[in-house]
């Protein structure tokens, strides 16, 4: 074969070969890009799924409990009166004066006077005494017989009943008083308040009432 013809034949073959290579390369690029896109989507989906599967940690702020103030016991340092005959004790203010009229089983309490009289009907602010009545109803009947009536009745403890008392008709002497009754040893203890200014103190005294052996 003529050398020139051989050279022309080679040249005619090479362009075909180049066109084939270019065609193959052009088809490979979209495939590579597609694979890359799939990989990126897979990575993104995995990352999103991982974040969603992780528990959400909430910042919880716990309030510090504020301790409630301890109530002050105003009766803690009060004086104590004990009645061994009827088996009870109670407290009264430490700066009050007292006189125990043992013959009448009466304890006179007064914040003002140091000398207390054990008269038959003492009118000291608070009088603690033993009554011959055995029940609340018997005591109320007793009051009615001497011209008094109950105007208010209030249960103020498991053992104490508070009465407001006044005379049915005006008469000499005090027209009204308050009394707290506590059943004890087949009788009742009376905490009589002759001065209404000390009604709260009388209820504090009742709060300290205890039965003793």
Layout of helices and strands, plus pairs?
Elements (H helix, E strand, L loop, with lengths): L2 H51 L25 E5 L4 E5 L4 E5 L4 E5 L15 E6 L4 H10 L2 E8 L5 E7 L8 E9 L2 E7 L5 H9 L2 E2 L2
- The helix/strand series, from N terminus to C terminus, equals HEEEEEHEEEEHE
Beta-strand share of residues: 25-35%
The strands making up the biggest β-sheet line up spatially as 3-4-5-9-8-7-6
Tell how many strands the DSSP assignment holds.
10
The quaternary structure here is single chain
**Shape assignment:** rod-shaped
Count of DSSP H/I helices = 3
Could you list the spans in which at least 5 consecutive residues all have pLDDT below 50? none
Describe the structure.
The protein is of the alpha+beta class and 213 residues long. It is 33% helix and 28% strand. It contains three helices and ten strands, in the order αβββββαββββαβ. The protein has helices at 3-53, 136-145, 199-207, and strands at residues 79-83, 88-92, 97-101, 106-110, 126-131, 148-155, 161-167, 176-184, 187-193, 210-211. The strands form two sheets. It has a seven-stranded antiparallel beta sheet with strand order 3-4-5-9-8-7-6, sandwiched between helices. A hairpin with a 4-residue loop joins β1 (79-83) and β2 (88-92). The longest helix has 51 residues, at 3-53. It is rod-shaped, with a radius of gyration of 51 Å. The model has no long low-confidence stretch (mean pLDDT 77).
């Amino acid at each position: 074969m003529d050398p020139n013809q051989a050279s022309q034949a080679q040249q005619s073959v090479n362009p075909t070969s180049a066109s084939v290579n270019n065609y193959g390369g052009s088809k490979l690029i979209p495939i590579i890009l597609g694979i890359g896109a799939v990989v990126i989507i897979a990575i993104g989906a995995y990352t999103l799924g991982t974040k969603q599967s992780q528990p959400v940690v909430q910042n919880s702020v716990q309030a510090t409990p504020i301790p409630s103030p301890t109530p002050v016991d105003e009766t803690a340092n009060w004086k104590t009166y004990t009645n061994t005959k009827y088996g009870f004790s109670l407290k009264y203010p430490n700066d009050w004066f007292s006189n125990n009229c043992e013959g009448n089983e009466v304890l006179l309490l007064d914040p003002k006077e140091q000398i207390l009289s054990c008269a038959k009907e003492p009118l000291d602010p608070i009088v603690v005494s033993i009554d011959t009545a055995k029940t609340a109803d018997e005591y109320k009947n007793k009051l009615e017989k001497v011209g008094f009536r109950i105007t208010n009745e209030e249960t103020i403890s498991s053992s104490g009943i508070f009465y407001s008392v006044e005379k049915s008709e005006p008469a000499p002497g005090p027209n009204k008083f308050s009394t707290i009754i506590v059943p004890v040893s087949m009788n009742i203890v009376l905490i009589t308040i002759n001065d209404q200014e000390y009604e709260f103190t009388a209820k504090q005294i009742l709060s300290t009432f205890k039965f003793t052996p």
